[in-house]
Structures
1.
Amino acid sequence: MTKEILARFESATHEFLNAARSVPAEKLEIAPDEGEWPPSYVIHHLADSDAQFLVRFINVLSMDRPAIVPFDESTFPGALDYPNRNIATSLTAIESSCAQLVDILKNVDEAGWNRTGMHVERGELTLSALLELTTNHRIGHIDQISR
């Protein structure tokens, strides 16, 4: 099952990257609806959240029941200067973090997939559950950027 989730994660990454690269330059800064992020912000957000997720995976694999600290994505655009960020850099970061995560997780055994971390809001999460959450997060953004 976990290998299937890892394949879904990798596939979703490629699907997101294809969708992001197909957004016309003139639409990158236009939010599809009131109160939503423009495609450029979604791209930067995924790059930034991938960095957070990667640390979670590394910690769960290398530490005993580490704390998994949530992040407030609403602060990212201002704090991380989304209006002045480079789209190509964020797309490269997404591609690289996916490759790194797949490389780390591809040989994890069953005991590794059952390792846990303690999420402040969600409670105990296995490595497998973290990958499922990360994959679903990515899939949600494919839909968001494709509008």
Note: The beta strands are 67-68, 116-119, 123-126.
2.
Amino acid sequence: METKTRYSRLTIDIPNEDHRQLKSMAAMLGKPMREVVCDLLHSNLYTPSIPNEETLQAMENVENGKELVVCNDIEDMFHKLRA
């Protein structure tokens, strides 16, 4: 037997541009805005975003000023990224 999802009403004020973007996204996806908002909430509320070991180490290195790459400008940065 399938259980029916129960809903609560939520009223929030959002910027007009965000509302337009949300409405456009819903239209492109062919979904009601309510469903798009619920999908976005679920992907952010229930998806753990715990950094892995590599990320934790990189964060620690940055905080301690270790293993930093210095670039002279944007071209230098892209050159070093490609290397």
Note: Helices lie at 16-29, 33-45, 53-63, 74-82.
